[in-house]
Write a structure and sequence with these properties.
The chain is mostly helical. It has one domain: ACP-like (Non-ribosomal Peptide Synthetase Peptidyl Carrier Protein, Chain A). It is built from 5 helices and no strands. The longest helix is centred in the middle third of the chain and has 15 residues. The N terminus is likely disordered.
């Protein structure tokens, strides 16, 4: 659907892509997006957070384990975990 070419992204590319994905959600306040912001702080409830992680998996071509997905609470954690799991 929105999938990019599957490859390893630099940290700055991953930060840009994660941020752009989050901005697509109607409830997100873009002005509050910072690396340390939690999904809740930018306007995502728990269901929106799950949907955002699934969207990131689809768009970035990265499938996370449930264990890794549950670790994501902030934008920085999403960037770190998706970067770690992206293909070389």
């Amino acid at each position: 659907m929105w999938r990019f070419l599957i490859r390893k992204f630099s940290t700055s590319e991953m930060e840009f892509k994660v941020t752009e994905i989050l901005k697509r959600f109607n409830t997100v306040d873009s002005s509050k997006i910072t690396p340390t912001a939690t999904f809740k702080e930018i306007g995502l409830d728990s269901l929106d957070s799950v949907e955002a992680i699934v969207a990131m998996e689809e768009i970035l071509g990265v499938e996370l384990s449930d264990e890794d997905a549950f670790k994501i609470n902030t934008i920085q954690e999403a960037i770190k975990i998706f970067s770690k799991n992206s293909k070389n």
